[in-house]
Specification:
CATH superfamily: Winged helix-like DNA-binding domain superfamily/Winged helix DNA-binding domain
Radius of gyration: 17 Å
Shape: globular
Number of domains: 1
Number of helices: 8
Largest sheet: none
């Protein structure tokens, strides 16, 4: 099962997991874990929420991998799951639940809300990109993978990956400027 530490699981492994192969499912979950944690850490209001959201996203992956339409869309799918889970946790926190006294003082709630709203706006715009663009954008700009690694993971030439990334960035920029 080919998988490098910096990349998502191979499509063949994802497809096998979707077909119920337990070792492949375990490989998909463990291969997705670092990326899911990174997503959650950048989207959630607190490290604890990020850890909880990442765990919840992996549980959803385990339960619903069969509903994933295209194995190449795993990164975008997981990003949406993590985003939704972080937003759910933020909404829950804003409805009056107070933090335990032993937690450090957080930044003002208004700042957190504004940051999360901006993250939500960007995440929504990414999820609305044409089908071939979110994965390359997430891998290159959010995960910070090198271009050649992204191209190899997606089975593209470096030039094709750069072209797709440019289109994704341009479309995202237009969507964000228009909203």
């Amino acid at each position: 099962m080919p998988m490098t530490p910096a990349s998502w699981p191979a499509e063949s492994v994802i497809k096998a997991a979707q077909d119920g192969d337990v070792p492949s499912l375990a490989a998909v979950i463990s291969g997705s874990h670092p990326h899911v944690q990174r997503f959650a850490g950048s989207l959630c209001a607190s490290p604890q929420d990020a850890e909880d959201a990442a765990q919840e996203a992996l549980i959803i992956l385990y339960r619903k991998i069969g509903t994933l339409r295209a194995s190449s869309a795993l990164a975008a799918w997981m990003f949406r799951i993590v985003r939704n889970e972080c937003l759910r946790r933020l909404k829950h926190a804003l409805t009056g639940e107070t933090a335990p006294a032993w937690e450090p003082v957080a930044p003002p709630a208004e700042d957190i809300v504004l940051q999360r709203l901006e993250a939500e706006r960007v995440a929504t715009a990414i999820s609305e990109l044409p089908a071939d663009q979110p994965v390359v954008l997430v891998m290159r700009d959010i995960q910070g993978l090198p271009g050649h690694e992204v191209a190899r993971s997606l089975g593209l030439s470096t030039a094709a990956m750069k072209s797709r990334l440019h289109r994704a960035r341009s479309t995202l920029r237009e969507a964000l400027e228009g909203s």
